[in-house]
Amino acid sequence: MNIVTSLFAEDIHQAREWFRTNTFSRGAVFASFLWLFALVGLGGYLLSRAFFTNLANYSTYGFLSAIYLLQAAIMVLGFLFSLTAAMTTVTSLLKPTKTICYLVTMPIHPADIAIWLFLKTCLINAFFLLVVLIPVGLAFGQQFFGPSLGFFLLRFTAGALLLVLITSAIGGIAGYLLALPLRRFATYGGLIGAACGIAVTVGMLRLIFPRDIVTLYNAAPDQFLAIYNHLPLTNQLFPTYWLTDAITTAKSQYLYPLLLFTIGIVGFSFLLEARRFLPVLQGVNGASTARKFKPAQAGRLTRSNYPLLQKDFLSLVRSPSEVSYGLFLLFMGVFFFFLLGVAQSVRPPGSRFAEVFVLFVFLWLLFFVTAYLLRLVFPLMAREGTGVWYLFTLPLKRERVLTEKLLLGTLLSLPYGAMAVILWLVFPVAGNYVLPVICLSLLSIVVLAAVQAVMGSICPNFKEGNSPERVSTSIMGIVTLLVSLLLAAIFALLAYLLVTGALAAPFVLLIGLEVGLFFVVLFWVLARSHLRRLAF
Amino acid sequence: MPEDSAPSPKIFISGVSKSFGAFRALANCSLRVGKGEVLALIGPNGAGKTTLIKILTGLLEPTSGCAALAGHDIQADPIGAKRTFGYVPDDPTVYDYLTGREFLALTGRLRGLSRSQITERTTDLLGLFPVKHLMDEQMGNYSRGNKQKVAFLAALLPKPDMLLIDEPIVGLDPESITILGKTIREFAKNGGTVLFTTHILSFAKDYADAYALMVGGKIVRKGRITTQTTLDGEYKKAVQ
Quick one: angle between helices A320-345 and A59-94, nearest 10? Predict the structure, then answer.
């Protein structure tokens, strides 16, 4: 355990050192993240508060519905955090950091390294889970546990921490089981992972939203309980049911089964990770990764009018982690809008609701687009990495490099463009606004892609080119995120003005085009100027 | 070394200085390398050899002075200057996700070669080093030496006038060192100009016509390499 403590002490030391150099800019990055999380938490709280207040009007049935939603939220978050923990574990095994490689060569028991990694995953999950779940719990407690709010929050926080342990353990187990197959089937690893993810999601959605649930909305009071008690999620064999019960009941009979379940799964995960850490690490790094391609593949490059674009495209599609991440983010979008579709289908589509709904969907769509682009498009220039000498010793104008990055960025945004078209055809938008809303969505997605591709070429972080996630969370990444959110807000406002009839469609599209052009040209000029001065 | 008055040197460096903040990496360096000549830039670690070669390739801007390749000033006419040389850096890492063949194809395309020219040149060059069996594998799996070889082939692909090579033999096996040395000589014999940096004095002596010795950011000695030249002695004297 001394080793684990020392490793954590070193992490803290490194964090301090990180702040010691460039304290101001790094402090700004840190503060920006805190603000972002605070905003997410506040948003979650306000939405939940409004929702639970509304449900409270239906007395017992409202309370039961709220508990059901809480249980569904625990299940969804549990799934997402297990997935995140699995991805973190797989990444640390497939792409071990220099620190891990160094530690493996030291006379340290591999179990210590595995436990240190597991606890780090728990801490990260705890932070994000608390940011998302605590505001919901606070809103829930204020509405239904007013007099004993403090005690409820204590139970809720303890429950959330148990969820962290359970999800980290499940994710860890899945990560250790998947690492070797993913390395062996690197080409299709991302696709197989995404397919499994979609299958589990569909199964979970069927669990949370069975067909019977629709009948609940119009059920008579005497029928309500009968239907409610037969919903799959209220099955008392589910650990999510135990957890919800332990949170919402002072002396829950499910507390001990829950604790036993947690100890069991965490213990199993600990044992598996401690025993399998070294064999899996050796296995994945010893497995042949040599991929052969047909000579004809090279022929495509000799014909291409956009060889740089093609090269960058290959850099993405041949990287299983990038493919998986792209698919994961796309899948998150599909998942969210599917849930939203189910939720909105039971609301009376009044005109006011439809207008606000368009604004809501537009904002979320652009938020997902921003997250996706920030990970895949923004780092395109930085991904040149330490091989950047090659590009800048070629007889090419640096603008050409920028142009091809921009074109690829736009192409990569197409899946979200397709999703936008489907969304507006499915969701309730007044017929005469469907086409203009689709056009505005496509315009905003293309603008966001272009802005991110170009902004990624201002101060690209070539040293971190092999870690796009670090590039995305650099200072320039944060600035790009803020600019993208500003653009998203502008475009969402334009969409709202369009569907409320405040502005005519051609006018809205013209303003959108002008705003987009302004930002793209502005950052293009800055990026071009920076690239011209770039030295290595 | 050609005299300063020699007409139109292929590589021309005049009064080049480079500072990184308060640190002066290069101080008033001047050098000329003529057509068909191989010049070895030698010196201890931190002497400024890589900085000088990076200024020649346009990767760094000099604080003062100028550098030109085949008459094209690298700062004023970078595209013109870059058309004339092939470059191999000390760390030859490029695109791990591309195969060696794709990398050569990309280089050819970006250098403006036609499809048939790329195919023909690739076939010719693959006879140079024993790397044919690797060419359809991703470069991420290559050893450092094999990456170096492919980077060298890519530099030769467009038939440049000049080769600029930073530490050409680091990571190469003895057989490949000989092949590389002979290729450099052959390239020079056909009218090409070569500038390479190295720590290995025996390699410089075997394959270069002339040398420039750098210490502390300055070129402290230049001369032709003959059978009588003892680079070892020159090097020790200058460093001391």
Answer: 170
A326: left (phi over 0), alpha (psi -120 to 50) or beta: alpha
Amino acid type, A267: G
What's the pLDDT tens digit per position in A104-149? 888 888 888 888 988 888 888 888 888 888 888 888 888 888 778 8
Where do we find the tokens 């070193």? A10
For residue B148 the two structure tokens come to: 């170096």
What DSSP assignment string belongs to B146-165? HHHHHHHHHHHTT--SEEEE
Chain A residue numbers with beta carbons less than 8 Å from the beta carbon of B20 are none
* Partner residue opposite B59 with nearest CB, options A298, A319, A393: A393
In chain B, residues with a C-beta closer than 8 Å to the C-beta of A390 are: 94-95
**What global pTM score does this model have?**
0.79
Extended strands (E) in chain B = 11-20, 23-33, 38-42, 64-69, 72-73, 85-88, 162-166, 193-198, 210-215, 218-224
CA atoms within 13 A of residue A481's CA, in its CB half-sphere: 19
What's the pLDDT score for residue B190? 93
Asked if B88 reaches chain A (Cβ–Cβ under 8 Å), the answer is no
Residue B139 near chain A (CB below 8 Å): no
Interstrand relation of B193-198 and B162-166 (parallel, antiparallel or unpaired): parallel
Contact B164, B67 (CB under 8 A): no
Q: Residue B99 has what DSSP assignment?
A: B
Strands B162-166 and B85-88: parallel
Whether B170 contacts chain A with CB within 8 A? no
Q: Cα distance from A398 to chain B (closest Cα, Å)?
A: 10
Distance CA B182, CA B137 (A): 27
3-state secondary structure of B62: coil
List the Cα angle A334/A337/A342 in 5-degree steps: 125
ipTM: 0.89
What does the alpha-carbon distance between residue A358 and residue A154 come to, in Å, rounded to a whole number?
38
Question: What is the C-alpha to C-alpha distance for residues A42 and A52, in angstroms, rounded to an integer?
Answer: 15
8 Å CB contact between B111 and B188? no
Tell whether the torsion through CA atoms of A498, A504, A508 and A511 is positive or negative. Answer: negative
**In which residue are the tokens 């890492």 written?**
B93
Q: Which long-range contacts (CB under 8 A, 24 or more apart) does A61-64 make?
A: A61/A221, A61/A224, A63/A144, A64/A224, A64/A225, A64/A228
